[in-house]
Amino acid sequence: MAKAKHTDASTAPDGMHSANQPDKALLLDWGGTLMRVMPRWMGPQHGWTDEEPMPHAGEVLCALAAGWRLALASNASESDEGPIRAALASMGVGPLLVGVYTWRSAGSPKPWPPFWAYALRDLGLPANRVVMIGDDWTGDVWGATQAGMSGIWFDPPRAGHSGGQTREARTAPRVRTMRDFRELPGLLAELGFED
């Protein structure tokens, strides 16, 4: 089983030491959240460069990276960390990821507890310092909140629907709904994560 990249003094991006890293993390789903859809073809790297990044995701996450650890949490079962980072490089996010957690590396899919335990253990953070952002209510938000994290359900207006149809917003003490990545800093503040 592949092991996630640990963020210690020898592997932290750009020479950062873990003691200097932010004490909070954003876990981000891949298909439907960072990229509009998952790759059209199965298998490592197939079709990734043809998929469009979600509007404003790259710019917002790059701006937040100074105060947050960024990591990917995906149910990808065939892909390795390097190609996934490469797929996200065009939006500036790939090199910023401190971890890439997949069904393949965790040995279990979202929303099951072993997936979240694996990611939290690798991040070295308590669940209450982690926010999961994803477009799958059950797999991303419900699963993460059951593990003690906060969740942001990403539900952008859907193309092809008159007026950009969205579903009803869901809000709870540790849950918010996001329609556009530009809302993310305000939603994080509402969840109690002030910079």
Description:
The chain has 195 residues and is of the alpha/beta class. The protein has helices at 57-64, 81-88, 103-106, 113-123, 137-146, 184-190, and strands at residues 25-28, 69-74, 97-102, 130-134, 150-154, 175-178. It has a 6-stranded parallel sheet, with helices on both faces. Strand 1 (25-28), helix 1 (57-64) and strand 2 form a beta-alpha-beta unit. The longest helix is centred in the middle third of the chain and has 11 residues, at 113-123. It is globular, with a radius of gyration of 16 Å. Mean pLDDT is 83; it is low at 1-17.
Distance between the termini: 37 Å
Helix-strand string = EHEHEHHEHEEH
Report the principal-axis shape: globular
Oligomeric state, counting identical vs distinct chains: single chain
Radius of gyration: 16 Å
Strand content: 15-25%
- Major β-sheet strand ordering: 3-2-1-4-5-6
Short summary:
With 195 residues, the chain is of the alpha/beta class.
SSE order and pairing:
Layout: E1 25-28, H1 57-64, E2 69-74, H2 81-88, E3 97-102, H3 103-106, H4 113-123, E4 130-134, H5 137-146, E5 150-154, E6 175-178, H6 184-190
Parallel strand pairs: 1-2, 1-4, 2-3, 4-5, 5-6
Features:
15% strand; 6-stranded parallel beta sheet; alpha/beta; 6 helices; globular; 195 residues
